[in-house]
Specification:
- The structure is a single chain.
- This protein is α+β, with helices and mostly antiparallel strands and 554 residues long.
- The chain folds into two domains: 2-319, Sulfite Reductase Hemoprotein, domain 1, CATH 3.30.413; 422-550, Sulfite Reductase Hemoprotein, domain 1 (2-Layer Sandwich).
- The chain is built from 18 helices and 22 strands.
- The chain has helices at 2-8, 11-17, 26-30, 40-46, 60-65, 87-99, 120-132, 159-173, 180-186, 276-290, 301-308, 310-316, 369-378, 402-411, 422-425, 447-460, 520-537, 544-550, and strands at residues 51-55, 72-78, 84-85, 105-107, 113-118, 149-150, 212-215, 229-236, 239-247, 266-271, 341-344, 350-354, 360-361, 363-364, 367-368, 383-386, 392-397, 427-429, 470-473, 487-493, 496-501, 512-518.
- Helix 6 packs across helix 13 (369-378), helix 13 (369-378) runs antiparallel to helix 14 (402-411) and helix 16 (447-460) runs parallel beside helix 17 (520-537).
- It is globular and about 70 Å long.
- Bound molecules: siroheme (SRM) and iron/sulfur cluster (SF4).
- Residues 430-432, 436, 438-439, 443, 473-475, 477-479 line the site of iron/sulfur cluster (SF4).
- Residues 72-132, 347-412 form the Nitrite/Sulfite reductase ferredoxin-like domain.
- Its cofactor is siroheme; [4Fe-4S] cluster.
- One of its GO terms (cellular component) is sulfite reductase complex (NADPH).
Length: 554
């Protein structure tokens, strides 16, 4: 049976197998001056190094008319476990975005940085500089474990520090061991006498991407149920007892293919803190050995679990994990959004969560966010923390320096909470056009203007302060986790969206399809009625997602 599967395995499996531990012919392609691109197979391997080959989709037609190849450029993703960066690291990213990127930074839904628009010849100096600043791009993409998420705001308790430490440990542990990355980007000499080894991943790595997150109830700002593997901290009498283990979450689907679907993670038990790494390794190895290597659309861990069954997983686990999986412990999540404004941490330092529209750090007319954060980083105090909702926390600020931060934000007109509706503060959009090759419709560039119009409806109905999560993606891959939005939009075609309603406000229930292929006018007409009814018949503290379920609207 497995013999046959090897013969039928997907093209990507062959590419990984023959890549000499992720080297392929990337080095040769980078040096080819005749094209801005690299070879197709190498572009797949490049993902493991943290970069996607893209082209500017806005310029597609024009370039074709001019008989030029597409304007090839590269996106780089930078890995920071738990999203915590120093001011010095921020300044490096800020400068690189201007020097080699498109002058902006994207804070992603997994607490990473993305830079867009890097030309082939600039990839190496960019990656090198990132590494010199003690950050890395390795394994931010590709069939490996990705950036490990963790609640970045330590205001609640000491537990945050402990959990963050574990997230870092897990993130480091699951990085690939190949030396290809260091040779290609950091000029390390290849040591032929010390052959590469991937004790965990082996030569073909994982069947598909793998995502791990940690959350500390009651906050679910990492969307724990959207991950292949989630750890929910269980705190008793102020002490970290351990973690509930949740497996098989994922958001992606393909239109017209019912065998693909978003899936919430399933809790399978509880482990002590020192069992996190061993249980994670066992689970990753199960996915390595049983994940589908024939059909990439069925290769995520969620399908492995649904294919073999949760009971099978629980039986397989003890064969690879010596520790004890106890019964899942009760926990309560309240929200998957961020809490904005200043809060004081247990060490007396201050943390300011700032809304960053769709995670894009840029200067725009009347709103100089990029400059403001650079000025804050130049003060050299505290740290800068990326949240899983594409926002930024200006963290660890001593009491005496708080006013300095406020002055900079004011000077550069950075929007403050009071100017925004609860809906906008709960909004997220994926990148989509012009860089994402998979986008069917606009997302990041469109959602703000749609929200301007929805804001009017909210004001008409006195709902401007209600916290409602709204998320948009330009295709059904779900990068902004739109399946977990109380109001979700997924792009179908330019200017057309499917509308989904009814996810819970805390990220533990998926939404459902409400209408298909809506234009903006149709979206606003639907929302005008829904919001009017919600204002009239919604219960005082009832979340919009719960309301549409109670009223059987979906
Ligand atoms: Fe994603 C592919 C952007 C978080 C599910 N994602 C992509 C690519 C690389 C497009 C591509 O393959 O060519 C997008 C790059 C666009 C660009 O121009 O930058 C892209 N994904 C993003 C980011 C930047 C969205 C954002 O606006 O913040 C997020 C980067 C996270 C990070 O720092 O690592 C991002 N992607 C997610 C998430 C959310 C999460 O992980 O919590 C998901 C849903 C969860 C999941 O994995 O199930 C997600 N991205 C996908 C998928 C669908 C995977 C699937 O199982 O079907 C793809 C397509 C694929 O893998 O084939 C994809
Ligand atoms: Fe691109 Fe689709 Fe992800 Fe949006 S959801 S970034 S359109 S892959």
């Amino acid at each position: 049976m497995r013999e046959n599967l090897v013969e039928k395995r997907s093209k990507e499996e062959g590419i990984k197998d023959n890549s000499d531990y992720l080297r392929g012919t990337i080095a040769k392609g980078l040096g080819d001056p005749l094209t801005g691109a690299i070879a197709e197979d190498d572009a797949k391997l490049l993902k493991f190094h943290g970069s996607y080959q893209q082209h500017d989709r806005d310029l597609e037609k024009e370039r074709r008319q001019q008989k030029l190849e597409p304007l090839y450029q590269f996106m780089l993703r930078v890995r920071i476990a738990g999203g915590v960066t120093t001011p010095e690291q921020w300044l490096v990213m800020d400068e690189l975005a201007d020097r080699y990127g498109n002058g902006t930074l994207k804070l992603t839904t997994r607490q990473s940085f993305q830079m867009h628009g890097i030309l082939k010849g600039n990839l190496k100096p960019t990656i090198k500089t990132i590494n010199e600043a003690l950050m890395t791009t390795i394994a931010t993409c590709g069939d490996v474990n990705r950036n490990v998420m963790c609640n970045p705001n330590p205001y609640q308790s000491k537990i945050h520090g402990q959990v963050y430490g574990l997230a870092q440990e897990v993130s480091d542990y699951f990085q690939p061991k190949t030396k290809a990355y260091y040779e290609l980007w950091l000029d390390h000499k290849r040591e032929i006498e010390v052959p590469d080894q991937e004790p965990l991943y082996k030569k073909t790595y994982l069947p598909r991407k793998f995502k791990i997150a940690f959350c500390i109830p009651p906050h679910n700002d990492v969307d724990i149920y959207a991950n292949d593997l989630g750890f929910v901290a269980i705190v008793e009498e102020g002490r970290l007892r351990g973690f509930n283990v949740i497996v098989g979450g994922g958001m992606g689907m393909t239109f017209g293919d019912d065998s693909t679907y978003p899936r919430l993670g399933t809790p399978i038990g509880f482990v002590a803190p020192d069992q996190v790494l061993p249980v994670a390794e066992a689970i990753v190895s199960i996915q390595r050995d049983f994940g589908n290597r024939v059909n990439r659309r069925q290769a995520r861990f969620k399908y492995t679990i649904d294919n073999y069954g949760v009971d099978w997983l629980k039986n397989e686990l003890p064969q690879r994990f010596d520790g004890k999986l106890e019964d899942t412990k009760p926990f309560r999540l309240t929200t998957n959004g961020d809490q904005y404004g200043w809060v004081r941490g247990i060490d007396g330092h201050w943390f300011h969560t700032l809304f960053v529209e769709n995670g894009r750090i840029k200067d725009a007319e009347g709103h100089f966010l990029k400059t403001a954060i650079r000025k804050i980083a130049e003060l050299g105090i505290g740290d800068l923390r990326l949240t899983g909702n594409q926002n930024l926390i200006i963290g660890s600020i001593p009491e005496n320096d708080k006013s300095k931060i406020e002055e900079v934000l004011k000077e550069y007109h950075v929007h403050e909470k009071k100017h925004m509706t609860g809906l906008r503060l709960g909004s997220m959009a994926c990148v989509a056009l012009n860089t994402c090759g998979l986008a069917f419709a606009e997302s990041e560039r469109y959602l703000p203007s749609l929200l301007d119009k929805i804001d009017v409806l909210l004001q008409e109905n006195g709902l401007e302060d209600r916290a409602i999560n709204i998320r948009m993606t330009g295709c059904p891959n779900g990068c902004a986790r739109s399946a977990l939005a109380e109001i979700g939009f997924i792009g179908r075609a330019p200017g057309r969206y499917n509308m989904y309603l009814g996810a819970s406000h805390n990220g533990d229930r998926l939404n459902r399809l409400y209408r298909e292929m809506l234009s903006e006018e149709e979206i606003l007409a639907e929302l005008a009625q829904l919001l009017k009814d919600y204002a009239k018949t919604g219960l005082p503290s009832e979340h919009f997602g719960d309301y549409v379920i109670r009223m059987k609207i979906v």
